[in-house]
């Protein structure tokens, strides 16, 4: 898998971890990664079927690269995808009879956001010029399915909700308004946020 583009590198691992965190499948406490109840539900639902196979993902990435190089047939690949999709659906139907989410807070992962907000365009992606849209739990780039652009901004940072108005400022290189009440451990502080394009990360800006 290390030879397959898109898997096994430090950069892609960091992007995957960030995305899992933003979508609340994992949480990080004192540099330790833990699966949330939402993550455990997903793990239980998928089980050990082919959808969870890193080998399959590696093979797909390799085949897509071969198609891009003209060494493989896109039509044959899509036929294989259709067959596999049908198999995955049948597996899910069969497994659903035995799902057991006892002890997991299932109600906490139900969507409560207004559907009208999901998909709303917020601005341009600072990494690839794609569109940044509201994806429910975070703001993300619409180019991800095509280019794997993993730019995201979590809707909650250290306990504070990041508004669309502030995200718009971040996307054009401006700092946000002062956000009061960030909480890290026992420390509570006020700060602005700014996206550092060169480092590809958000940073806190403290007013004098």
From TrEMBL:
User: Could you state a single Gene Ontology molecular function term?
Assistant: DNA topoisomerase type I (single strand cut, ATP-independent) activity
Q: Which residues form the signal peptide?
A: none
UniProt superkingdom: Bacteria
Looking up Pfam families in the UniProt record yields: Topoisom_bac, Toprim_Crpt
Q: What range(s) does the Topo IA-type catalytic domain occupy?
A: 1-89
Is Disulfide bond among the key words of this record? no
Please provide the record's keywords in A-Z order.
Isomerase
**Gene Ontology CC:** cytoplasmic replication fork
Q: Name one GO biological process term.
A: DNA topological change
SUPFAM superfamilies referenced in this protein's UniProt entry, alphabetically: Prokaryotic type I DNA topoisomerase
InterPro entries tied to this protein: Topo_IA, Topo_IA_cen, Topo_IA_cen_sub1, Topo_IA_core_domain, Toprim_C_rpt
Which Gene3D superfamilies does the entry link to? Topoisomerase I, domain 2
Instruction: Please state what the protein is called.
Output: Reverse gyrase
**Source organism (scientific name):** Oikeobacillus pervagus
């Amino acid at each position: 898998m290390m030879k397959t583009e898109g898997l096994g590198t430090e950069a892609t691992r960091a992007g995957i971890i960030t995305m899992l965190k933003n979508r609340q499948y994992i949480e990080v406490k004192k540099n330790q990664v833990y699966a949330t109840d939402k993550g455990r539900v997903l793990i239980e639902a998928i089980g050990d079927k082919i959808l969870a196979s890193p080998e399959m993902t590696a093979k797909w990435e390799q085949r897509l690269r071969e198609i891009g190089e003209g060494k493989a047939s896109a039509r044959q690949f899509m036929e294989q995808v259709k067959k596999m999709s049908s198999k995955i659906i049948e597996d899910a139907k069969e497994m659903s009879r035995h799902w057991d989410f006892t002890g997991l807070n299932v109600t906490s992962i139900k969507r409560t956001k207004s559907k009208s907000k999901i998909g709303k365009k917020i601005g341009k992606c600072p990494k690839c010029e794609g569109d940044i849209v509201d994806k429910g739990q975070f703001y993300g780039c619409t180019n991800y399915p095509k280019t794997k652009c993993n730019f995201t901004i979590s809707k909650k940072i250290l306990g504070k909700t990041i508004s669309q108005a502030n995200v718009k400022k971040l996307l054009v290189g401006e700092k946000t308004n002062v956000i009061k009440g960030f909480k890290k451990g026992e420390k509570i502080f006020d700060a602005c946020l700014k996206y550092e394009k060169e480092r590809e990360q958000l940073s806190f800006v403290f007013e004098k």
